[in-house]
Amino acid sequence: MGDRILQGFLNRGLIDVGGDDAKLDKLNQAAGDLAAALKNNPSKALGFSLIAFDPDAPEADPVVQEALAALQNRWTTYRNTFSATPTAVVRAMLLDALVAAAAEDDRVGVCFVASARNALPFMPVDNEREIWISIVEEVERRVDLRAEAEWATPDSISVQPIKFDVPKLTAPEVRIAKVPKDSLQTGMMAAAGPTGINQQGGAVHTHGNPHWPQGHQLWVGEFGLRAGTTIAEAIDTALSEIQVSQPDLAQPFAKLAETVSGHVDSTLKAVSAATAGLQRRTNLLWWREALFSPSVGKSYRTLPPSVAAALMALDLFDAVPLFSPASVSAFLGEAVLRLGGTADGGKRTVRDLVTEAQDEATLAPLRTAAAKLAAEPVGRGPLLAMIGHPTHTGARDAESFQQLTGVPATSELDTVAWSGWVFRELQASKAATDASPARRNAARRG
Question: Domain total for the chain?
Fold first, then answer.
């Protein structure tokens, strides 16, 4: 890709190395150094992009100076080849670095594509148009693949079977008791009659049944009562001494409960992740139908169209993840059109729209978000830097506007285009500082 970009600039006469392949190789090396700087610090992507787009980029801009330093490091005598500051060379190297870094870090791709969709239409790059179209489409396609994957709802959800190692339990231990034989014998003798013979052959008084069994009905009743009581007491005594030692089930049941709980939790997470895209789309449809701003608690229809459009961009940004399909911007445009009074073709200069965003009370949430995402304007940066830091000297200076943003002061946008611009800058500024995994496969492994 690097050779193709630099060669494209060469073929169109935008840069000239005198047909020296060694010099072209030095440009490639310098571009590689800039790509390495981007990989180490993706926050540079916004500045790199906005300078790469602009044929009139100011020489004093920090990004231009960084690129010239990289070129100087690889090609000490480059100034002997170029009569003036080689802005086209700088832009070609930055573009090469951006494409190389975007191939390894989707966040750089978001910055690049968002900035390209905003700024490129206002840049005098007609003789470079073919280069830009193919490059932007290629990077955008790669970023969209990740976004579509993160927004997708699968046809089915695969849940792994629960895994539980059944512990080995010890068998219950039963200690058998014995019937008290002596007391049972004594009791039965007492039930049988008033006297008996002991083991030594001597007569003993049983102090029991006073009757003898010879045809005497009273003996039968007395015997049954006394014998039953004696046997029952013997059985109760034996049973009371039986002991059963149960295995300890507390730990196995605790382990089972932990395993089941973990399995249910992972299953719910799988369902939640699988249906996140569907839930997100449902919420967005509700938002579009309600036309109600959650950030200020009022209907968009009660606000001036340009204010409502900027606020809708912020609210949509808060509702979607960093990696969102290109169709989300189109969705925002359709939502803005639903407000009415926005499709009359009326346009305002970008400078006026920025000033309104700096001053309008309703757009305070936008200024707060912009201040967090974009640093104070120094070199080339997004419009958000001026919106988020309205008291900064350059933010209020009309003459500095084009130098700090790259956007011609006379550029005009309608409300739909303005909302898309703000949304893409919010996405790009977040991508520049986001901690998301650089690549989609890294996110999946995590």
Answer: 3
Torsion of CA 360, 362, 366, 371, to 10 degrees: 60
The one-letter code for the residue type at 352 is D
In this structure, the answer to whether residues 36 and 95 fall within a common structural domain is yes
Domain residue limits at 184: 173-245
Per DSSP (E only), the strands in 190-272 are: 195-197, 203-205, 243-245
**What is the number of residues in the chain?**
446
CB 188 within 8 A of CB 227: yes
> In this predicted model, what pLDDT tens digit does every residue of 251-268 receive, in sequence order?
777 777 777 777 677 766
Amino acid present at 334: E
pLDDT tens readout for residues 388-409: 999 988 888 888 888 899 888 7
pLDDT digits (tens, 9 = 90+) for 13-42: 778 777 778 888 899 999 999 999 999 898
CA atoms within 13 A on the CB side of 207: 1
Q: Model pTM?
A: 0.72
Q: Name the β-bridge partners of 412.
A: 349
* Element containing residue 309 per DSSP (H, E): helix 305-319
C-alpha distances in Å from residue 346, one per residue of 198, 287, 302: 127, 25, 19
